[in-house]
Give the backbone structure.
Amino acid sequence: MWQNIIQYSKNLRLNNYSIINIKKIHPIALVILAYFAMKLAFASAFFFYEQLGVDANGVMQFRESDKKHPWVAGFFVVLLAPWLETLIHQHAIKRLFIWWKITNSSIYIFISAILFGIAHGSKLAFLPAFMAGVVLATVYQLRDHPPGRPFFYTWMVHFMNNGIAFFIWKTTSN
């Protein structure tokens, strides 16, 4: 039975068939799906922390200093940080992989996510940031074909994530 399944999947790959042609998914649908995938990644990471008995409150929250100048913090958190992080953690790494002639997309996604997780600071922030990095690198990889505009769509997912988090923080904080 397993040999039949393996052979079937090999035939699909050899004939360039797939169940879902990701290039035919509308870009806006991809951004929305990726946003919800990031939320699912955060929820599962925090569920994992809860199961371990780790207090993860405040892991991915805004700082007290952000309350003094919330719109300046919003500009950096919502617009600038996602742009720079997409530039560094997805675009630059992908271009390095192309330059080094490394074509394995799984390695690219893993390396990009590891660096994205490390860049987000504390040990507790690593897991949710790593999982978000997997989603962002996957979006970049899926849209990295002419005229895919991978930078824009990856930035848009990150922008939506940070923007909604900022909006919730701004409307619920004192």
Observations:
- Residues 143 and 149 are 6 Å apart (CA to CA).
- The longest helix spans residues 70-99.
- The chain has one domain: 24-172.
